Amino acid sequence: MSKNGPSHAISGVFVFLLLGVFAVFSTVMVVLGAKAYKATADRAAEHNADRIASAYVRSMVRADDDRDSLRVEEIGGLSTVTMHYDYDGEEYLTRIYVYGGKLREWFSYAEADFEPADGEAVCAADEMQASLSGHLLSVGMRHGDKWTNVDIALRSAAN
What is the pTM assigned to this prediction? Predict the structure, then answer.
């Protein structure tokens, strides 16, 4: 009978140690997996912000590419892409610019005072530089230390 007593105690300790090692390795795997997921999600979010900004500018310009409706303006130190519209005899403006760490859109009557903080935030961006050379619109946007450039040949040039 004395033989069965010590062998059960050693096998119980072995099972307990095995469960402890399993718990430690499981915790390590969960922590490593969470770090890898966070890094992947952060890279995807940064890439999406760049894609959203360039796609947004491209879509807005393409949607409103009428002869002489698009201008690049410098207002209060902000580089803006400004589109002019005429609806039922009233003139309206849409301005695309970067203010307060966001790419923004501002839509208003042409006579309204431009208030950069009132623009609708589209996505994250830190800086924007725009230029119009002939019928080529170039817009560069910076988010963090990465620049995204969009060059758009205006279709209204063919009209």
Answer: 0.70
